[in-house]
Amino acid sequence: MALLITDDCTNCDACPTECPNDAITMGDEIFVIDAFKCTECVGAEEEPQCMLVCPADCILPNPEFAETPEELQAKYENLHG
Ligand code: SF4
Q: Measured by CB atoms within 10 angstroms of the end CB, which terminus of the chain is less buried, N or C?
């Protein structure tokens, strides 16, 4: 399951550089996670790195992108060749 950033985001800029998949970019108003790139850090880290650094606790699972750990691993491998 990819993650998403809620409206509670304060644009603190802590998370984009933590993402191993370059999935986080600035959107129209707040940072956004590209669900097609987010693997919940499966393949790279033990835990979602953006959630660890977010001071606003505004990063949650994206219910529209339900994926198994195996699917997330395959997604990671696909992204990184
Ligand atoms: Fe990137 Fe990991 Fe956050 Fe997904 S969970 S956006 S892969 S840092």
A: C
- Atom of ligand 1 at shortest distance to CA of 24? 6
Question: What confidence category does residue 1 fall into, taking pLDDT thresholds of 50, 70 and 90?
Answer: confident
Residue nearest to atom 2 of ligand 1 (CA): 41
Ligand 1 test: best mutation among 15, 19, 52, most atoms within 8 Å of CB? Answer: 19
As a whole number of angstroms, the distance between CA 33 and CA 31 comes to: 7
Residue of the CA atom closest to atom 8 of ligand 1 = 19
Q: Which helix (H) or strand (E) holds 32?
A: strand 31-33
In this predicted model, what pLDDT tens digit does every residue of 34-77 receive, in sequence order? 999 999 999 999 999 999 999 999 999 999 999 999 999 999 99
